[in-house]
Amino acid sequence: MVKEEPEFVNRPDNTAFTQQRLPAWQPMLSAGIVIPGFVLIGLAFIGIGIALFVTSQNIQVLEKDYTGVELNSPCYKCSDSNVKNCECKLDFSLDKLFEGPVFFYYGLSNYFQNYRRYGVSRDDDQLSGDLANFKEPSEDCTPYQYDSNNSPIVPCGSVANSKFNDTFELYQIVNGAKKLVPFDGKGIAWWTDYNVKFRNPDVVPLRNAFNGTVKPIFWSRPAYELDPSDPANNGFVNQDFLVWMRRAALPDFRKLYRRITEGDYATGLPAGNYSLEIAYNYPVLSFDGRKKVVFSNVSWMGGKNQFLGIAYLVIGSMCVVMSMVMLIVYAKFKFPEDE
After folding, report:
1. Each residue of 128-141: pLDDT tens digit?
2. Is residue 127 left, alpha or beta, with left meaning phi > 0 and alpha meaning psi from -120 to 50?
3. What DSSP state is assigned to residue 299?
């Protein structure tokens, strides 16, 4: 028996694939290909950029700050931390139809929801309806794991405890009378949050699942009573709670509060005078933050975003300019074989 030589033991099979003899195609980039390619890419980017920029410009946005720092602010009296259950009113006018559907946001600035210690201060097992974690919340929730009486806090953690709790009501002023603008709060949270990540315990009634626990320190009511008008919108699947629990990446952010899509306002907010009544509860001055409300509509590209259109225009223009530079260089210094 002939023993196979060691140097041939690991040699690949003599096939076109293993020996890299498969047919291949490699482009031969010449000036006649590269320069027109840059021009076409540049023109395409410029066209997309113009479409994005024009669309963004047509999106209507109205922002109103209500922090109350300025003496002439209608919410100045509410900025005092010693004032409780304070309400203020923002009056504004619309010169033309604010086209619908209208999205109503609250905005916060200088608020770092992306801070790591803040972000991990939650109990995902508890938020998914695990009753065992109702009695023994995760240590990640410290210092909002237990209250001063050593009772477990549900939901625990800094994120839940700091839930935004200002409330708003919008009225249109018609002939001196106030007409309520209906808000739609259904479906404002992510589908995955509502149907996958957050679940209520399978206990009926829901309040019984919270026996032996206490509400977060900063909350005015327990999780099972977040929405007295809709029993299905309570607990960990409350829409406002879900919106808050999805943390923002940047310190200046806005979160969806309601949509205006019903009744006489299905097509938008008509021109006229409006009054926004605010229950001012959320403190922001201790960290030099600010609060605002934002009315906005959307388009096929989403909300107002001029950066995307400008970026396409800049890149497209650079491609066209580079193609012209390459054309000049090629015409002046072309190689003999290209003639």
Report:
1. 999 999 999 999 99
2. alpha
3. B
